[in-house]
Structure formats: structure tokens, C-alpha cells
Amino acid sequence: MDTWQMIKVERTALVDALDKLSDNDWDKPSLCTTWTVRETVGHLVATATMTPPKFFAKLIGNGFNFQNMVRKDIAQVTAGRSNAELVDLLRSRVDKRTAPPGPTLSWLGETIVHGEDIFRALGGYHHHPVEHVVAVADFYKNSNLLIGAKNRIAGVSLRATDTDWQNGSGPEVSGPIIALLMAMTGRKAALGDLTGEGVAVLRERD
Predict the structure, then answer these.
(1) What is the per-residue pLDDT across 68-86, written as a single tens digit (0 to 9) for each?
(2) Is the CB of residue 191 less than 8 Å from the CB of residue 206?
(3) ∠201-189-91 over CA atoms, to 5°?
């Protein structure tokens, strides 16, 4: 299975799960700083409709302020649309291969991590094929692209308890691979799902 096929599987599962949320859930905060569940879905839609030329045009138009561009894109996607319409819009992009510039694995990571920004915030992790999560963990462990995962996990040992995956050396952090992935991306809530002396180290890092 290639990475885009993995993305299709993840997007399909995500929109099916989003379709079951109550309207109250959509207004709750996600794990992504300052974004509600609704805004996180808006960001996923915006990313799935982006192309490299559109990305650079918007970035220039926002004075190279990436965060300002993202905020505007979320507002544009969500304005005037119901929650159900946002789900339908994301569903229409399930098998599309458009994205901003960057490694394809980063868009698999985007789908999984932002999905968990929603569902972990609402109470529990969503199910993912373990090979998808491992592929993203292997990508992030060597990358500081945008989220700084490589620096964040430096000097600690990560060990998954539900699959054969580990990385690094130093004080251990162990637990489910999805929780390790979320901790790698700076989601503090995931640290409560992990054990080991290295958890305290990660808790002190941004």
C-alpha cells in the first residue's frame, strides 16, 4: 500500500467517525492549540484542497506569515457551512492527491495527528492500522519539519507496547504507538497515556 492509499484509508475512517459526533462536540477544544474540533476539521479540508502553486501564492499574500495564512484558510472553509457540510466536503477529498508542498508522509501524519487532536480530546483514541502509525513515527523521529519532533524526543528512548517499535536512547517512554506519536508532536495530553522516567523529560519540552 502506497502512502496516498494509506491517506485515503485514514480520511475515510475519519469522516465516518466525524459523522457520528454531536453538534456539541464540534464546539469543544481540540488538542491543537486554540482550535476547536470544527476549526481542526476546517484545517484538514483546507490542506486537502491545497496545491503547491496555491500554497505559495497564499503564503506571499500573507507576507510569509504561515500561521496567519492557516487561520484565514480555516475561516474561509468554515464560514457559512454546517458541521455536516464540512464532513461532506472532507469526504469529497478522500481520494484526492492534492496537498501543499512537502513529503507525502507528512500528509499521512497530518491526517492521523489532527484526527487524534479531535478524538483524544473528546475522550479516546481513534483506531488506526498500526503500520500507518509506525510509518508516521518513523518519519517524524528524523524530522523537525514544522513540529520539531526530532528535537523534542532527543535523549529519550521511545518504546511501543502494542507493536515492535522503538527509537532512541536514554530515559524510557513507553506506551501505545499512537500515544508515542502524539507525544512526539508535542501533544501534552498524550503523556498521560505513557509511562517511564522519560515522560517527565518530554513534559518539560514544548
Answers:
(1) 999 999 999 999 999 999 9
(2) no
(3) 130
- Hey, what's the cell of 106? 507528512
Q: Which three cell numbers stand for residue 80?
A: 457559512
pTM: 0.94
CA distance 8 to 147: 23
Residue with more model confidence, 178 or 147: 178
Closest by CA to 77, choosing from 31, 20, 38, is 38
Question: What ranges do the domains of the chain cover?
Answer: 3-119, 130-203
| pLDDT exceeds cutoff 90 at 172 | yes
Name the fold adopted by 3-119. Four Helix Bundle (Hemerythrin (Met), subunit A) (1.20.120)
Half-sphere CA count of 27, side-chain side, radius 13 A: 4
Which of 176, 156, 177, 175 shows the shortest CA–CA distance to 167?
Answer: 156
Q: What is the pLDDT of residue 193?
A: 97
* CA nearest neighbour of 44 among 96, 138, 107: 107
Query: What dotted CATH number matches 130-203?
Result: 3.30.1050
